[in-house]
Every structure is written in C-alpha cells, then in structure tokens.
Design goal:
The chain has 21 helices and 20 strands. It has 560 residues and is an alpha/beta fold. The strands form four sheets. The chain has a six-stranded mixed β-sheet with strand order 6-7-8-3-9-10. It is globular.
Length: 560
C-alpha cells in the first residue's frame, strides 16, 4: 500500500531559484528509504515538505499525498500523530525540563486519556531503554540520549511515517550505531515507514530498501542500495561515490566486476576472495611534530559547570605543537567541547593552568587573545552570524580585523571560492541548510587569520565532497604554520586529517597517538576500512590504503 505519493513537486524559497525541481516518488507502507546527496541539494527542504507543521514558506507546485489525501488537506490531529519528524540537532526538539514530561508532552497535547498516556510512555521507555534516566532533567542528558529521547517522544505518538533529517550528525560513532539499530527495529518489528537523510551511510545504507540520490534539487537515482552503487560507478559520479560505505568505496576504487559489497562483513569477503595478501603494510612517511614550539598546553586542568555537579574535566594534561592538526575524539559528554572552551578562554578552570604560546591565558587581554591568535567554531554555526546576509557578516569580520576594502574583497572572494560558498553570500545565514551554515561559519573564521584554530565538529552536516575541500584547507593552513585542534565524531575525516588523535574518556585524555596506530588498534572508534582490512593487512585506516594494498598484492589466481 502506498503511504506517500509525490508527483512533480517543485519548490523555491522567496526570491530564490528552485530548491526542488520536478520531484516524483512513491513510498510503500513499511519501506525504509535513505536519501543522500551533497550539501544544499534540497534534502532537508524535501523532508520538511512532508510534515505540514514545519513545511517551509515559499512557492510550491506539484502534489504530495499521505495515505491518498493531499497533505495540505490532512487533518491536523492525524498529521501530528501519524507523521513523526526527528531533527538534525537534538537540542532543537526538546521542549520540557524532564525526560518523563518530554515523553508525555505530545500525548497530553492531543488530549489522550491519562491512563493511556502512562501506559504508552511506560511501554516506549522500556523499548528504548530509558528506564534508568526516566526521572532525569533533559539538560543532564548526553547528545545520544537526547536524540533517543526525541525519537521515543515521536514513537509514543504511534506514527505511520517517521522522517529523520541527518539524526546522527551530532552523535559519536557508538551512539550513532545504536540509534540506527533502533530505527531498524522500529521498521522490522513495528512496520513503521522510515524516510531518512544521512551523510554517514556506513550503517544505514545497507539496511535500506531503497536509496534516493539527490543532486541540485532533483532525484538522480532511486533504486536498491546495491544498484545505486553500480549506477554511480557507471557514471563515475565522484561526489556521490565518496559518500558510500567503506566496502562500496573500496570496491569502486578497484577495477573488478563482481557484486558490490555494502557491509563490513561483505567487504571482508570481497578482498579475501579476490586479492592476495603477500604485502601486508604500506610504507608511509613519518609524521613530523615541531616539539620545540608548544603553542597550547594544559597542565592538570580541572573544570565543572557548577559547584554541586561532578567535574567535567579531571586533570587534563595536553601539549599541542605549532602547525599540528590534533583531533580529539570520544563519546558525547566526555568533555571534548569543554576542553575547546577552556583553550579559547570561554571557560576558566578552577584548578590547573592553560598556556597559550607559553603565556598563562589569564594574562592575555581580550583583544590580544582573539586578534590574529585564537578562533573557535562552535557546534552550532548559527551563533557565528549576526547580520542579515553572509556577505554582511564577512565584511563585519574584515572590519573588525581592520583590513582595507580591497583586501577584504579579495580575501572574501578567495575563501568563498575555496569553500564553494560564493553563491551563498547574498543569503540570510538562517536560510541556509545545516551543511551550508557550517561551511559559511568556517569561512568567517578563516577571515580572522588566526594562529590557532579550534573546530568543534567542523564536518557536521557537510557532504563527503565538501570534506575534501575542507581537508585541503586544513593542510594548507598546516603548511602556513597554523595549529588546528579539532573535536570530531567523524572517524574517516579524522583518520585522513590528523597528525595525532586523542581519546577523551571520563574527563581526561586516556590515549594519544598517530592516526595509523590510534585507529588500527580500536574496535569501535575506528574506520570501516580498518574493520574490513585488519585481518589481512597492518596499520590500514583509510579506503585509499586498502585499495593500494589490494592493487600491490594483485588478484588471486584460480589456484590460490
């Protein structure tokens, strides 16, 4: 039975070109659909148009039907209950102060009988494993817990259709895997139709019934995940190929005709069945660290947000060297963002020292600390913007740095081109997609020409192709002697763009090493390429490395 029918859907925001053009799609009840596409391709707009309460304002044409009824004529109660929506940012959807209140909120607004509310809330809390934190304040939850709560608060309404807009972008790898596993259970056990957009496809892509590839507001392909991989390979769509799971990317990097692997298990079988393993390791240049110049040092740092709560940082010790790219990884709530805030001077420890270029951070004046010195990109890029257009914001930053008009114009043009955001300069920052906001915020920081750049989840919500551009910028900044401290949940990006990786746990750094040693010895905080290749090859953490080793080893003969 058809639950969603979309025919010739086009949409444009006021005074903007079409964001969606002639979209047609039919979704059967119980299907699991994953939508992928580059940053700004129209995924979020498309999903919001399927939920009347949050449908964007603009010019729309075409038809959307839910269970045979035009979506704009759908009963409001039916829409609220039967079409669930989970947003990208866990913070944006929570409306009450207590977990138990959040679970009951939607049902109470629908006037549901109190006895039924209690029963349905209890049932959902058990299903999602919320029992142990049922009585907590929502402000106390980790990012992963908040997103599970958002999902549970939607499921308690018993929706027929569940729409999710990049729901794992704020989650660490383990929390993301657990969240996707919950979605599969909801689809398999309750038959809920799921439409999800994602950039992190490792877990979600193989379990989908169909994959919809979007490009420039249009549907490029709609087919089974395996067939979509083959079609993208046939047309050599580099941007989309880079977004695929590790097994598929390794397959695409090798010139061999066989069934495309999608999962880690299938990837292991693919290289085991087809390639020798005489050569076990690639020779890689040693990473040089300028240990004579320490630009950031934390000495036994302790921090808590309130006297009545436990420490967030418990004796953190860290040295960061000039021109180094250091990535800090760890679970939600481990203290990574707090560490960046301490380094930037936004928060002050109650014990320990923070040294910037060997000088105590308390000795810096405000202007001295931030003028051509330290710049921080927060998790929420909207905080960075103050003006009504991106261009106005950029000029404001240039004015603060006292650049000449000509220098400002040239710098804005150069950075905008490098990040591929020139077309966004005339837009209001809040009209941009999450990924577009992220790229624009990064550009604004680069205008400040800092010596130390602090990034809190810089790749959040941006596509694989945009990550390559960001990667190039990282390495150019490194060549210029700029130090980068990057907090990230993006394992793949971290493996490719770090001199060292540090693991945060229980308020302190418990491990720090080169990416090869760090990721090849982890079981969960590691790359898909490492999981696929570790039983055959040594110290391999990227898909490119696996492809090189397979090519060096060569194909197996029939006698092997």
């Amino acid at each position: 039975m058809e639950i969603i029918k979309i025919n010739d859907l086009s949409f444009s925001y006021p005074k903007k070109r079409n964001v969606l053009t002639n979209i047609s799609l039919s979704v059967s009840s119980g299907e699991f659909i994953v939508i992928l596409g580059g940053t700004g391709c129209g995924k979020t707009t498309f999903l919001k148009l399927l939920k009347p309460e949050i449908s964007p304002v603009g010019e729309i044409s075409g038809l959307i039907k839910f269970k045979g009824v035009d979506i704009d004529k759908l009963d409001k109660r039916e829409s609220a209950c039967e079409i669930g929506f989970v947003m990208q940012n866990p913070e944006m959807q929570i409306v009450t102060d207590k977990v138990k209140n959040e679970l009951a909120f939607g049902l109470e607004n629908m006037g549901t009988n109190p006895a039924e509310i209690r029963r349905r809330v209890a049932e959902v809390a058990n299903f999602f494993g919320i029992n142990s934190w049922y009585g907590k304040n929502t402000s106390e939850l980790s990012g992963g817990q908040k997103q599970i709560l958002n999902l549970a608060s939607v499921i308690v309404m018993q929706p027929k259709l569940l729409i999710l807009d990049e729901p794992t972008s704020h989650l660490d790898p383990i929390a993301a895997s657990e969240f996707i596993a919950l979605l599969k259970r909801l689809n398999d056990e309750l038959g809920i139709t799921i439409i999800i957009s994602e950039h992190r496809l490792e877990e979600v892509f193989p379990i989908a019934d169909r994959a919809v590839v979007m490009e420039n507001g249009r549907i490029l392909f709609c087919d089974t995940p395996r067939k979509v991989c083959d079609k993208l390979r046939d047309i050599n769509n580099e941007q989309m190929l880079l977004a695929l799971p590790s097994a598929a990317r390794i397959y695409n990097g090798l010139n061999i005709k066989t069934e495309c692997p999608l999962t880690i298990k299938e990837g292991i079988k693919f290289i085991t069945d087809n390639y020798k393993n005489d050569i076990l390791e690639l020779k890689k240049p040693e990473i040089f660290l300028n240990k004579k110049e320490i630009v950031v040092e934390l000495k036994n740092v302790y921090f808590k947000y309130d006297k009545q709560v436990p420490d967030v940082l418990s004796g953190v010790n860290l040295k960061v060297y000039k021109g180094e790219i250091l990535t800090i990884l760890g679970g939600n709530g481990a203290g990574k963002t707090t560490t960046l805030n301490i380094i930037s001077g936004k928060n002050r420890p109650y014990s320990g020292k923070v040294l910037i270029d060997g000088k105590n951070i308390r000795s810096y004046k405000y202007d001295e600390l931030y003028q051509n010195n330290i710049a921080l990109l927060p998790q929420n890029p909207q905080i960075v913007f103050l003006k009504t257009t991106v261009m106005a914001d950029f000029y404001m930053a240039c004015k603060a740095m006292k650049y000449s008009d000509e220098e400002s114009e040239n710098l804005i043009a150069d950075i905008s081109e490098r990040l591929d955001i020139t077309q966004l300069l005339v837009c209001h920052p809040y009209d941009l997609s999450g990924g577009e906001q992220q790229k624009a915020a990064i550009a604004k920081l680069l205008l400040l020409k800092p010596k130390i750049l602090l990034f809190d989840e810089p790749t959040k919500a941006i596509d694989a192709y945009s990550k390559i551009k960001l990667s190039n910028i990282f390495h150019q900044l490194k060549k210029d002697g700029i130090t980068i401290i990057n907090v990230s949940h993006d394992i793949e990006f971290s493996a490719l763009n770090s001199d060292r990786c540090a693991f945060f746990f229980d308020g302190e750094i418990v491990s720090i090493d080169s990416p090869d040693k760090f990721f090849s010895n982890n079981s969960f905080y590691t790359t898909g390429a490492s999981m696929i290749s570790r039983f055959r090859y040594k110290n391999v953490v990227t898909c490119e490395d696996v492809v090189k080793l397979c090519e060096l080893n060569g194909l197996k003969s029939k006698n092997d």
